[in-house]
Specification:
The complex is a heterodimer. Chain A is mostly beta strands. Chain A has strands at about 5, 10-15, 20-25, 30-40, 45-50, 55-60, 60-65, 70-75, 85-90, 100-105, 105-110. In chain A, the strands form 2 sheets. In chain A, strands 2, 4, 5, 9, 10 and 11 form a 6-stranded mixed β-sheet that branches. In chain A, strands 1-3-8-7-6 form a 5-stranded antiparallel β-sheet, with no helix packed on it. In chain B, the strands form 2 sheets. In chain B, strands 2, 4, 5, 6, 9, 10 and 11 form a 7-stranded mixed β-sheet that branches. In chain B, strands 1-3-8-7 form a 4-stranded antiparallel β-sheet, with no helix packed on it. Classes of the chains: A mainly beta, B mainly beta. At the A-B interface, strand 4, strand 5 and strand 10 of A face strand 4 and strand 5 of B.
Chain lengths: ~110, ~110
């Protein structure tokens, strides 16, 4: 089955700096890669996703890049703010008949004012 | 944050007891899921259902059971066979596969 590795497990940055979280996946057939943000005590929420027919996607301060050859994808947050502090999860799945989304173990991002 | 509701927020299980976690959605989503969240372990899929009266095992189904008798409801039973049930349980739904997951607010299950 799919295996998703996420690094780093913790990341601390100064407000205004950029943050990058990287994930690798094992199943070359995977073609859907979402990122979820979970603030302390709250439910995970989708912040951005990318499908394998594109290499990059941006939404304001957030971007995701995908390298299918190397089987890795990354989340980039620019101009970080304290409210970006949360646990971020990457995930991967294939668009075959199953609905299984495999998550990484998460990255705790702390943005220091 | 409405749309998918989990109850209770906190639940305690005694040795040998089965407990049921409730999950209800009013988003008219076909697919529903149960995930288990342990510190530092990410989200692991327990069961998922693509449609009413159908469900499939996820990666860690042992010791759990589910039913999907109504589109809106997907309850999870943690049986006495689950030897390490203490965790945060998240229910989710989606309109279809490989689409945005909408999560509930979770149930924290602890063992007495």
């Amino acid at each position: 089955g799919e295996n998703v590795e996420q690094h780093p497990s913790t990341l601390s940055v100064q407000e205004g700096d950029s943050a990058v979280i990287k994930c690798t996946y094992s199943d070359s057939a995977s073609n859907y890669f979402p990122w979820y943000k979970q603030e302390l005590g709250k439910r995970p929420q989708l912040i951005i996703d990318i499908r394998s027919n594109v290499g990059e996607k941006k939404d304001q301060r957030i971007a995701v890049t995908l390298n299918k050859t190397a089987k890795h994808f990354s989340l980039h947050i620019t101009e970080t703010q304290p409210e970006d502090s949360a646990v971020y999860f990457c995930a991967a799945s294939r668009s075959s008949s199953n609905y299984k989304l495999t998550f990484g173990k998460g990255t705790l991002l702390t943005v220091n004012p | 944050d409405g749309g998918i509701t989990q109850s209770p927020k906190y639940l305690f299980r005694k040795e040998g007891q089965n407990v049921t976690l409730s999950c209800e959605q009013n988003l008219n989503h076909d697919a529903m899921y149960w995930y288990r969240q342990d510190p530092g372990q990410g989200l692991r899929l327990i069961y998922y259902s693509q449609i009413v009266n159908d469900f499939q095992k996820g990666d860690i189904a042992e010791g759990y059971s589910v039913s999907r008798e109504k589109k809106e409801s997907f309850p999870l039973t943690v049986t006495s066979a689950q030897k390490n049930p203490t965790a945060f349980y998240l229910c989710a739904s989606s309109i279809s596969r490989n689409e945005k997951l909408f999560f509930g607010s979770g149930t924290q299950l602890s063992v007495l």
